[in-house]
């Protein structure tokens, strides 16, 4: 079973935590992670882009001029894409970009992403966030002490102080463990968690 060191909020070693093999020592499955990330980015798209075609613009109820003997090109409607204020030809239309990913694939991708952080030694366990009130200075000092770059901080339960403290630090994001995604894990470099978060992840993602 993999194990990691536990540090206190000052960055000093405060023990060791044994991790579950099923969640944090799983084989890496790159296709699953790729599939889930692609679906996540696709699902973030609004798909509200649209333009007016010749059937949507106003005007064009009458032929602009007769077909022959005017010296001009024949025209049937002022709604043609060739005309100013005419409709757009082959323009984008509203659509749904949603991609479905099976639950088993999502769970496999999450275990792979967590295991990759542990293997690359980019997994930091902090005993607790000793914050009586929001303090950007305190969280920034902790990140520097443990050398956490582009960190994703996960908390369980009420994490308002952590969230408000981390939001002004460039590259640092704070998320509730219940709302994380594979994209969040892979888009960050260092993962910072508490023992409660580890227990929750093992409870949810163990086979």
Quick structural gist:
It is built from 7 helices and 6 strands.
Model description:
There is one protein chain. Helix content is 33%, strand content 14%. The protein has helices spanning 21-24, 30-43, 103-119, 136-145, 160-166, 182-187, 195-205; strands spanning 3-7, 13-18, 123-126, 151-155, 173-176, 190-193. It is an alpha/beta fold and 207 residues long. It contains seven helices and six strands. A six-stranded mixed sheet has the order 2-1-3-6-4-5. The chain has two domains: 3-45 and 102-205, Ribosomal protein L4/L1 (Ribosomal Protein L4, Chain: A, 3-Layer(aba) Sandwich), CATH 3.40.1370.10; 48-96, no CATH class. The model has no long low-confidence stretch (mean pLDDT 92). Strand 1 (3-7) and strand 2 (13-18) form a beta hairpin.
User: How many H/I helical runs?
Assistant: 7
What proportion strand? Answer: 5-15%
Largest beta-sheet characterization: 6 strands, mixed
Distance between the termini: 15 Å
Query: So what's the overall shape?
Result: elongated
Helix content: 25-40%
Total number of strands? 6
CATH architecture type of the largest domain = 3-Layer(aba) Sandwich
Describe the strand arrangement of the main beta sheet, using strand numbers. 2-1-3-6-4-5
Give me the strand/helix succession. EEHHHEHEHEHEH
Nearest-angstrom radius of gyration? 27 Å
Helices and strands: which structural class?
alpha/beta
Task: Let me know the CATH homologous superfamily of the largest domain.
Answer: Ribosomal protein L4/L1
CATH third-tier fold name of the largest domain: Ribosomal Protein L4, Chain: A
